[in-house]
Amino acid sequence: MCSYIVEKAKLVGTAKGPNSQWMRVDTANVYYDHPYEAQLDHALCVDFVCEADGGRERVAIEISRDSALDLIERIKAALASGDASHAKAAACSLVGTQSEVASLF
Amino acid sequence: MSYPGLVAETVKFKGHNGDEGEAYYARPSGAGKFPGVVLIHHMPGWDEWITEAVRKLAHHGFATISPHLYFREGPGSPDDVGARVRAAGGVADDQVVGDAKGAAAYLRGRPEANGKVGIIGFCSGGRHAFLCCCRSGNFDALVDCWGGNVIVDDPKALNAKRPIAPVDLADKIQVPILGLFGNDDENPNADQVNRLEAVLKKLGKNYTFHRYDGAGHAFFNAARASAYRAEQAADGWAKTFAFFHKHLG
Question: Which of A2, A28, A9 is CA-nearest to residue B157?
Fold first, then answer.
């Protein structure tokens, strides 16, 4: 590889590494190339940074291609599950009218 | 002949536009006039293995300097600095050539150096080393270790920082070339190595290519178990030392 090709994803959130402070992140730099640390020929690498704060600090991962593909599916599954739960909770909150709730007491 | 006694240290050098940066410099500790080598680091950065490679060349009699091509993005650990450079789209070719010329000037200014300076690069550094010999007369010999994107098949690899495929400047090279490649490498792949050799042959350049079966990218790198190939690396290093001693002294 050695391509310098980076996909940039805009984010809203925070990130934290071991023994570090939470940091705001607004960008994920994503690339599939030779990793720095992982003992893999190629790795899916993501650097979570905050470009608005200068982008000098990062939380980084280097994972195998199969790991990355599985992670994508787990993220989708977690979002789907979470969305379903939140929808159910929202629906529940609308079931009782004020008088129905009052009748319970 | 080997030189187990070494002096190895981080030094300051003047790079592109006179910018002062860090470099790692190692040389045999004994008296003598030693041939010089500029070592261009791979894309991950100026890491521990690069300093080992500098010391290995020094062990074999070369005053060797590796300029930190990412020093302008420092300070920080090499991996973090490398990540910043990658996020910014890499380093510009003009800047790399300027830094490499500055490193060569550093060597020629050293009392222990014999004035001859070779250049070796790994991975993206192989491309950089090739490019430096196309664009500069400051070097006396070139070792290209699996330089990727010397031939550019993906137009996305060309941009303002890297506007020209080095192969298109190959006619400018005036120094002997040693190329080392793994046949399982993806960048450069075997077809690109063959096409590069065809260009050099057509231009009448002084080159020798060695292709290694059972090896891919970065097969010298003992820090990477998945890439390292001990037998092929030992042969490649031996060919490198012999080549540089032949042309640099």
Answer: A2
